[in-house]
Design goal:
37% helix; TIM Barrel; 10 strands; ten-stranded mixed sheet; binds iron/sulfur cluster; alpha/beta; single chain; 391 residues
């Protein structure tokens, strides 16, 4: 990704310490995303932590479990907390994962992992996980192309190895970077994992016919989603968009009307050194710092809707609700025209295209005929609470 015209937080730079805001978290839920390390054992070519040289910059956790407990006590008391272990590769610091799970037994837990070290996890940890997001890019050729030879096989083997011992669900998390990613490889993941979530890559991969190629795959995915009413085709972005179109109040209630990736309301990313940011892709930007574990302060997310963002006049607004605030911030507030044209606008075009394709299948009629388990999943799948919905 290109470097944007924003200041980068230098290691060792003095930490700003604004006053805490008791209403920093909106609503009764909070996602505490703990980055157990910024090290990773893979070198994915598109890794967003490569921007601002965040990846690998912190290998040790600089705060203690008692610091974290004091922070939770001061800022998250009486909230329903779900923790996502994140990185780098979070399993490179499995000790911290176990320590946190033991210290906070009432929290819900999710793990975001590249899947290569999954087989090292003890059974009691696997049992407690509500969801595991396994990063994978598609089929073998696509995944190994980004992640290195043999990784796809290793991940699939590890998932098979732990699957029966995971308490909750296992979700394939795809960054859709390659324009040539085909229907069959995404379909394979949707059929073999509990859910498939994808995000359109936030990088300059939308030239020439690349948007049209992705649209052709989306047509097939959306067509398959609506083909059956007795069994869910578990694609989170499609489930979420259909939910948002049919039940608009669900599109807003968990997020106070703001973005469904939760960065404006109730997700906080704690870096290994204890600094807190709303979006894990913007931890190199000093003005985005939202709090600090050791200083025990927290303010409202600085990543908020801005009048320069185009969403309120957009045909997709009622169900998209500002897909990615990072993209909107860089493209319209920081006015990075290259990023806006080459990344943000093509992604918005794909989102609007998905909305039109969904409408073509008459989602209300499909929903009315769907079995109760399918309807329940579409309306209220638990995974919506700790996974982004929009791609
Ligand atoms: S499609 Fe783009 S412009 Fe429209 S609401 Fe979503 S993020 Fe905003
Ligand atoms: S979707 Fe949300 S969390 Fe993800 S990169 Fe965008 S702003 Fe950040």
């Amino acid at each position: 990704m290109n470097q944007h015209t924003i200041d980068v937080l230098k290691p060792g730079a003095p930490r700003p310490c604004p006053k805490s805001d008791p209403a920093a978290i909106v609503g009764g839920r909070v996602e505490l995303q703990l980055l157990t390390t910024l090290k990773c054992n893979l070198k994915c070519t598109y890794c967003s932590l490569g921007v601002g040289e965040v990846l690998g910059s912190q290998t040790q956790v600089g705060y203690t479990i008692d610091h974290l407990a004091a922070f939770v006590d001061k800022h998250l008391k009486e909230k329903e907390v779900y923790v996502t272990f994140y990185g780098g590769e979070p399993l490179l610091n499995g000790k911290m994962i176990q320590e946190v799970m033991q210290r906070f037994p009432l929290f819900r837990y999710q793990l975001q992992t590249n899947g290569t070290l999954l087989d090292n996890l003890p059974d009691w940890v696997l049992h407690k996980l509500s969801n595991i997001l396994v990063s994978i890019d598609g089929g073998e050729e696509t995944t190994d192309g980004y992640r290195g030879r043999g990784i796809w096989r290793q991940v699939i083997k590890n998932v098979g190895h732990v699957r029966d011992r995971v308490g909750g669900t296992v979700t394939a998390r795809v960054t859709w970077g390659r324009p040539d990613t085909c229907f069959e490889e995404l379909d394979d993941l949707a059929e073999s994992f509990d859910y498939l979530y994808w995000q359109f890559v936030a990088d300059e991969h939308y030239f020439d016919d690349s948007v049209a190629k992705r649209q052709a795959v989306l047509v097939q995915l959306i067509d398959k989603f609506f083909r059956r009413t007795d069994k869910l085709y578990p694609l989170i972005p499609l489930m979420g968009m259909v939910r948002n179109k049919l039940f608009p109040s669900r599109a807003t209630e968990l997020y106070a009307g703001q973005t469904q990736c939760r960065v404006s309301t109730h997700i906080i990313n704690v870096m290994p050194d204890g600094k807190i940011f709303p979006c894990p892709d913007m931890m190199y930007v000093p003005e985005m710092q939202q709090g600090d574990i050791m200083g025990n302060w927290l303010r409202r997310s600085p990543l908020q809707p801005h009048p320069d963002m185009p969403c309120e006049g957009c045909e997709a607004f009622s169900w998209c609700r500002r897909n990615c605030m990072k993209n909107l911030y860089l493209g319209y507030v920081k006015n990075d025209l290259r990023y806006r044209t080459n990344v943000v606008e093509p992604i918005c075009e794909l989102i609007k295209f998905m909305g039109q394709e969904i409408d073509r299948h008459n989602p209300a009629e499909w929903f009315a005929q769907a079995s109760l388990p399918v309807r329940n999943q579409v309306i209220g799948a638990e995974v919506y609470e700790y996974c982004e919905i929009m791609p």
